[in-house]
Design a protein that fits this description.
alpha/beta; Aspartate Aminotransferase, domain 1; Aspartate Aminotransferase, domain 2; seven-stranded mixed beta sheet; 45% helix; globular; binds pyridoxal-5'-phosphate
Amino acid sequence: MDKKTNLYSKLPKVDEIISQIEKDTNLLSNMPRDIMVESIREEIDVLRKQISLNNIKPEELDKTINKIVSIITIKTANKLKYKLKKVINATGVIIHTNLGRSVISKKVIDNITDVITNYSNLEFDLESGKRGSRYSHLVDIITRVTGAESAIVVNNNAAAVLLVLSSIAKDKEVVVSRGELVEIGGSFRIPDVMEQSRAKLVDVGTTNKTHLWDYENAIGEDTKAFLKVHTSNYRILGFTSSVKLDEMVELGKKYNIPVIEDLGSGVLLDLSKYGLQYEPTVQESLKAGADIVTFSGDKLLGGPQAGIIVGKKKYIDVMRKNPLNRAFRVDKFTIAALEATLKLFLSESEAIENIPTLRMITMSLAELEKRADKLFDMINKKLLDKYNIQIVDEFSQVGGGSMPLEEIPTKAIMISAKSGSITKLEKYLRLYDIPIITRLYKESLYIDVRTILEDDYDIVVKGFDYALANIEYSERSENYHE
Ligand SMILES: *Cc1c(COP(=O)(O)O)cnc(C)c1O
């Protein structure tokens, strides 16, 4: 027998490793056996490969086998971890679509837990004892907060726009300005949504200028609506003009054509009071006479993913009966979260204080400075040996395709490497158990404190410990291999 064959024959069997693990730890009892066996087979394959490459000396085999036992338990535990999990957003982008958009208020969670871990009156009318509508729970609070006549809620704003167009203008015409044919987040494009709804797009005006008479000239027998789309994620600057909502409403009244406005972000408070640029609120659009307004639940509203449609009851009633509404219907998680979030808007100060998205947007520079100082003190000593670290003036972004030009002054911790590259620090912070997502720009790493919840500073510190240990380990093994 040659040496290799001899080693192969000494490889343990799956069952042997399992009893070894059972002896060493009591972990096995909480680990699904199939996943454990899968990990064991993978590790035995690794050993087999090492033997074939002559990387294992016969006298080392026992030691190596002992080592893989702990690797297998770690590996199995990793396979059982949640794939979708909490991360720390240190980017300063508040409504970060890749990181889950809006953070739901802790105040809202109690309501969700109560509703979903019990039976509820989801589709049951407690007054009459008969079947009820799942949408009824939200109508009251939405109409109260926005001043609308009626409301309906679907899965997201893209579905909201599709439902509106399909209900009002299927096989008929909708007039839109060429300056408002937006694409949002890659997959929401007004012309495509229009096509799916089977409404015919009649685009008028030009990219930079559209006039009221463009809309008027486009009116025909089949015109069923004017659509105004909020250019959420871009602005056309320079020699421009667009038609104001109230002018469109006036024209619509003259010809008996309803005006739909897709607001996108759905601000319910005038944020210009807090130093941000003015964004039209849902209430103002309704007051200006829009017949139907659509907006997202998880942008500037700061609630769960949802598409909210408000407006005249006669149009909302048609949408209720549209079969698409059944396909787009929201579940009880969303209804519970949205109702509780909207309740906070009954008082502006409650909303600002308790809805994380609004709290982050309106956070004062003085508070940001205090937070940056605190975090700086917590990580400075760990880093000073190998990194330059300082607090700098930076800008946060609203994100989520809202307020694209808004740059909100903030305080950030800027870290650069005294020698070598900073990319490893970014990488290992990101690979930490609770990933810390930072921003890299020109060989510096930025940590914007605006989007980091204060309770999470300890996690950030542990993340740095993890990253620094891993960088050291990887550098040591690189040197070793040289
Ligand atoms: C964001 C946005 C949408 C899409 O909303 P979702 O809730 O992401 O589906 C549609 N229209 C406008 C103007 C938007 O800003």
